[in-house]
Design brief:
The protein has about 575 residues and is of the alpha/beta class. It has helices spanning about 35-40, 50-60, 65-80, 105-115, 115-125, 135-165, 165-180, 185-195, 200-215, 225-240, 270-280, 295-310, 330-345, 350-355, 360-370, 395-410, 455-465, 475-485, 485-500, 505-510, 520-530, 535-545, 550-560, 575-585, and strands at about 10, 20, 25, 50, 85-90, 90-95, 100, 285-290, 310-315, 380-385, 420-425, 445-450, 565, 570-575. The chain has a five-stranded parallel sheet. Strands 3-2-1-7 form a four-stranded mixed sheet. The chain is globular.
């Protein structure tokens, strides 16, 4: 950031902390934690900040207000004519930066504005970590929060570039994202597609191989990435050369998870309900819906909202845990604890607070209370996705009982540590199938947010966002009558119709083909049903017009996304496309 002649005071918080007056470093800030105090207040510029939390953050061992008063005097002395910017009221301090320049203030304003130009400014400012030479606990928390805003800006900018057809620029933003958070699987998928569409097919193949060696060690990369890699190899090796842009003929499944910044994201009533619950920092939020209704996308959106509101955020996807990590309660809790420590950049490793003589629940609760919540000066919103994996684990009831105990503790002790914790639990299966005593679980106390398939008007909105490939109401009805608002099928179908100029007649002809747009998706559904004869029989019976489902079979099929309906009496195949495909191919 450049200084200007009109600005006497300039503060730099990204990279090494600097305080300059007329381009000259301010002397005396190295005494009595004065530089820390000035930086702490700069992060909260022009806001009244209570002195007690300041003292506790800067002097965690003592929380000494006397030390704070001495540092305040030292800052004023060092600032000279700018000392009036350090304003005191009884029990509060404020740093007035009106007329001054501070990169952190510019960054925060740019993030709040949210336009493409503003976000580009924010990304440029975040060229180095916040206060990178300091390792204080409060600095790590602030650094993680701003890193989250930076990553969100990169996702938004990549999506904006992609919308304009500038896939090279989108790739550049995604690479910046990957440097910070290489564990996010979606960024590898999107970057691979953008590289292909910008003509960097060789780089896309290198990225695929890199992904296999790093992110997807235990599993094969997602099918859409593998299919795209095979297509690149076939056209490049077989023909010797593939022109840039030929990737447009490659069918990819597209990201099943939409990022919050995706311009094609369609808001539904569940979005507002989740937004309201996150804004209130409710104790437990239950995000439920069948497979591929958009739970993970909505969860990401809710966590991003929490991050932008200043909360600390942790996301745990239970699909990513290995068999060994899910084997016992102790291994499960340790995996969660290490993930929390990594995402929040906590210094205290779980092993240091794990006592083999204590139960897994006691160890994990102690770690969360002492090493996580106590270290944060912001609320913590923790999203757990695919918690269905716990329902059939013998220790699952103990995990849910612990979550319920935290909710109860928050109610009984409003001033205690649990008031800072919000759990967002995303799942598909009905909890009552596996938990007999719901009083020992969070499933009858949380704020429930239920996701269903798109309505006709929501598909119409999605159609507009893809440039209206469905030109008339009649064509819209034909499309909707085939996919019945299935979010994944609607999104992929409209995207491919827009990108490949496919008409509704061609779409209907190839929709249920093995080599069609949804071939891999339909094969996975068939494979899932074929593993259980009772499920296969139930689906065949529904297709034939029957309606005799047990309650358990109904809930299992609905959780899997194969059927819809409020009760077993109203069960139906989820969409005509499924019925058409499964009628011919389900054994």
């Amino acid at each position: 950031m450049e200084t200007t002649n009109e600005c006497k005071l300039l503060l730099r918080c990204f990279g090494a902390f600097e305080a300059l007056q007329s381009g000259v470093p301010v002397r005396g800030l190295e005494l009595r934690e004065s530089d820390r105090l000035l930086a702490f207040l700069a992060l909260r510029a022009n806001r009244l900040v209570p002195t007690v939390p300041i003292a506790e953050a800067l002097w965690p061992e003592t929380g000494s207000l006397d030390s704070l008063h001495q540092s305040t005097r030292q800052v004023r002395l060092a600032l000279g004519e700018d000392a009036v910017r350090m304003e005191s009221q009884k029990g509060f301090l404020r740093l007035n930066l009106d007329g001054a320049e501070a990169d952190i203030v510019t960054f925060q304003k740019a993030i709040a504005q949210g336009t493409v130009d503003a976000l580009e400014t924010a990304v440029k400012l975040h060229s180095a970590p916040l206060l990178e030479l300091w390792d204080d606990g409060w600095v790590r928390g602030e650094r993680e929060k701003l890193r989250g805003q930076y990553l969100s800006a990169l996702k938004t900018l990549a999506a904006a570039c992609r919308e304009q057809g500038d896939h090279a620029a989108a790739s550049a933003y995604l690479r910046l994202f990957m440097k910070i958070k290489p564990s996010e699987e979606w960024v590898w998928r999107e970057l691979m597609v953008d590289l292909v569409r910008s003509g960097e097919r060789y780089q896309a193949l290198k990225l695929y191989e890199q992904a296999r060696e790093t992110v997807f060690k235990r599993l094969e990369p997602p099918e859409d990435m593998t299919r795209l890699a095979h297509e690149i190899q076939r056209t490049t090796v077989g023909n010797g050369h593939s022109p840039a842009g030929s990737s447009q003929s490659v069918h990819t499944a597209g990201p099943a998870i939409q990022q919050p910044s995706d311009p094609h994201y369609v808001m539904r009533p569940a979005d507002q309900r989740l937004s309201d619950a996150v804004a209130r920092f409710e104790s437990v939020i239950l995000l439920q819906g069948p497979a591929q209704t958009g739970k993970t996308s909505l969860l990401a959106k809710g966590l991003e909202q929490a991050r932008m509101a200043g909360a600390s955020v942790v996301q745990s996807d239970l699909r990513r845990l290995s068999t060994e990590e899910m084997a016992t309660a102790d291994s499960f809790y340790r995996a969660l604890a290490y993930a929390i420590a990594e995402q929040l950049s906590l210094d205290d490793p779980p092993n240091d607070s794990w006592n083999p003589r204590r139960s897994p629940n006691a160890n994990f609760e102690g770690y969360v209370r002492k090493s996580v919540l106590k270290e944060l000066d912001t609320p913590l919103v923790w999203g757990l996705d695919e918690i269905d994996r716990l329902f059939e684990r013998p220790y699952g009831i103990d995990v849910f009982a612990l979550f319920r105990a935290w909710h109860n503790a928050r109610s009984l002790d409003p001033g205690g540590p649990w008031k800072h914790l919000t759990l967002v639990l995303a799942y598909s299966t009905e909890a009552q199938l596996f938990i007999t005593d719901l009083n020992q679980s969070p499933f009858n106390v949380g704020i429930r947010v239920t996701l269903t398939d798109f309505t006709l008007s929501e598909v119409g909105e999605l159609n507009k966002r893809f440039g209206s490939p469905l030109k008339t109401d009649a064509v819209m009805s034909r499309f909707y009558n085939l996919v019945a608002g299935h979010p994944y099928l609607s999104h992929v179908g409209l995207r491919e119709m827009a990108n490949q100029s496919i008409g509704i007649d061609d779409f209907e002809r190839q929709a249920d083909r093995e080599d069609g747009l949804f071939g891999s998706h339909l094969r996975r559904l068939r494979s899932l049903l074929s593993r259980d004869e009772s499920l296969s029989c139930a689906v065949r019976d529904l297709i034939a017009g029957g309606s005799s489902l047990s309650e358990e079979t109904f809930y299992r099929l609905r959780a899997a996304g194969a059927i819809s309906g409020e009760t077993e009496r109203h069960a139906r195949i989820r969409c005509p496309l499924y019925a058409r495909y499964l009628e011919r191919r389900l054994p």
